[in-house]
Amino acid sequence: MKIARFDNNRVGIVRDDDVIQDLTGALAQLPAHRYPFPHHDALIANLEILNNATTTRVVPLTRVELLSPVANPGKIMAAPVNYTKHLEEALADKGIHHGNLVAEIHKAGIFLKATSSVVGPSEGVHLVHTDRRNDHEVELAVVIGTKGRNIAAAEALSYVAGYCIGLDMTIRGTEDRSFRKSPDSYTVLGPWLVTADEIPDPGALELSIAVNGRVRQQANTKDLILGVPELIAWASSFYTLHPGDVLLTGTPQGVGPVRPGDVMVASLERVGEMRLLVS
Ligand code: MN
Q1: Rounded distance, CA 253 to CA 195, Å?
Q2: Does this model's pTM top 0.85?
Q3: Residues less than 5 Å from ion ligand 1, measured at CB
Q4: Which domains does the chain have, with CATH numbers?
Q5: Which of 48, 61, 136, 203 is spaced 20 to 30 A from 178 at the CA atom?
Q6: d(CA 114, CA 92)
């Protein structure tokens, strides 16, 4: 199932013939949470409400504004250099590392991005500090579906709700990386969530990003240093994972700068493609 959030917080299923079946009425079945709100995303924690939902209308994909498939992630976890070739390019380019320690992921650990940085493709990326280098990083994004702590790698994929494309936008510079990666719109999730049953092996997916029609990054998740199961196991040995938590698995080689006016097109095998503007 491809689950999209679109327009004014509507929810639907994307079909192969490029239309969305609007199932927004099903959201009325979600538990009514009151303050204090839970750490999880209410829809991701209750995706089964969509199974027998009534379609109220069918809309062409070209006519909708796609939002982040996760409305309220409790945390955005992100793997730093998790592809060997990106580690090599980061070490070689002072414009990327700025004298910061660049270490392989086993030493660097997983970092967090502000949840307020999340947008969907229709919202675009709005650069701040345009006097500095702002880079795209295309990544496989994993959305957690089941609460868990100390999850074994062998069981980890059963904790996944689904997958989408993640853009981990980054200002290069000397500050701590979570600061430089957390401005509003610096985490793009989209174009929709593909449920885990459709992607039995997240470790064999082609991903790419083109800027103004030129391919910048092209790789396969088989080259991840720590794969999805190992990342989930490691993250959950430090903190509880909740439905709707997002794990950005790291970016491959080919990161590069974007400027206002650029158009990015990112794609992920078995998921699809998303186009967005930089302003
Ligand atoms: Mn990244």
Answers
A1: 27
A2: yes
A3: 137, 168, 251
A4: 2-63 (no CATH), 76-277 (3.90.850.10)
A5: 203
A6: 28
